[in-house]
Design brief:
This protein is an alpha/beta fold. The protein is 48% helix and 12% strand.
């Protein structure tokens, strides 16, 4: 298991915390919570991952989300999609069954704004709070405790959990009512899709023109074209390396959420829809787990 990198933590009163989902994001996020001094109980569908996590960070594991949530002040989750989220919250042995009055459930899954509103209403009716809090920064951001967290929900509940979230974040912002965090993450993914496609076309064009693209990116990266994608993915795109990072399958899931929400709210996303189809082409090429920068493979 990749352990959480060293980080200076804010002084926060220790909380009883549960974390549901120990994937490439959740495991280091939960690790930062443990290292920040919180009492952490973890749950993962594959129990061996929980056992591995405990060997690294301590704490305890639970057999079900409901068991993990029992007695917790804050329950956090980072799972795959809407249905996974419903499963660990309101499904059989879901966490909501044992959430204490006044507790807060924080969801870091990239999911729909609809499910965030649905679960927030359910939580409110049962006497606790729900914050939708998707993250940006990828696996390295989780490992380094430098994620950006976009939140929606009640302001009082947000202020209660923000210092805890900052154990694995560099920024944590409340953007409005329930669902606002998920909508902000959609904005984030729309921006990234356009940037990656533009960068792919630029690099492919420059290589066809016979340019030394490492030198070109070194120059234009100091000007108006600079971006995180150029700095971090440009060099690996030039080298045709994609066995890392945010997988194409995950990006297609996220862009599907964006396009579905656009149908509901009337927004027009012509470029996003086109790039989603480009990612479908990459999947057909066998790149389901390649990094999203593999869009350039279509152009070679």
């Amino acid at each position: 298991m990749t352990t959480a990198a060293s980080k200076t933590y804010e002084s926060v009163a220790p909380q009883r915390v549960a974390f549901l989902g120990l994937g490439v994001m959740g495991a280091p996020m939960a690790g930062h919570l443990a290292r920040a001094g919180h009492s952490v109980t973890v749950f993962n569908r594959t129990a061996s991952k929980s056992a591995e996590w405990i060997k690294t960070y301590g704490g305890r594991s639970a057999a079900t989300p409901a068991e993990a949530a029992k007695g917790a002040d804050i329950v956090l989750a980072c799972v795959g999609n809407d249905e996974d989220l419903r499963s660990v919250t309101v499904g059989k042995d879901g966490a909501f069954a044992n959430m204490a009055t006044g507790a807060v459930f924080v969801d870091h899954t990239t999911a729909s704004a609809e499910v965030a509103r649905e679960l927030s209403a359910t939580a409110k009716a049962r006497g606790f709070s729900f914050i939708d809090a998707p993250v940006s920064g990828g696996n390295l951001g989780a490992i380094n405790g430098a994620l950006t967290v976009m939140c929606g929900g009640d302001a009082v509940a947000f202020e209660r959990v923000r210092p805890v979230i900052m154990a694995f974040a560099k920024a944590c912002t409340l953007l409005g009512e329930s669902g606002s965090g998920q909508l902000a993450k959609m904005v984030n993914q729309i921006c990234i899709a356009g940037l990656v496609q533009g960068l792919a076309e630029a690099i492919a064009f420059g290589q066809r023109a016979g340019l030394d693209m490492k030198a070109v990116l070194g120059v234009i990266g100091k000007g108006a074209a600079q971006s995180w994608q150029m700095d971090n993915r440009g060099p690996t795109m030039i080298e045709d390396k994609f066995d890392f990072g945010f997988a194409v399958d995950w990006m297609r899931k996220d862009l599907g959420l964006c396009l579905a929400e656009a149908q509901r709210n009337g927004a027009r996303l012509p470029v996003t829809a086109l790039i989603d189809q480009f990612y479908a082409d990459v999947q057909v090429m066998g790149g389901t787990r390649w990094d999203t920068s593999s869009l350039i493979r279509r152009l070679r």
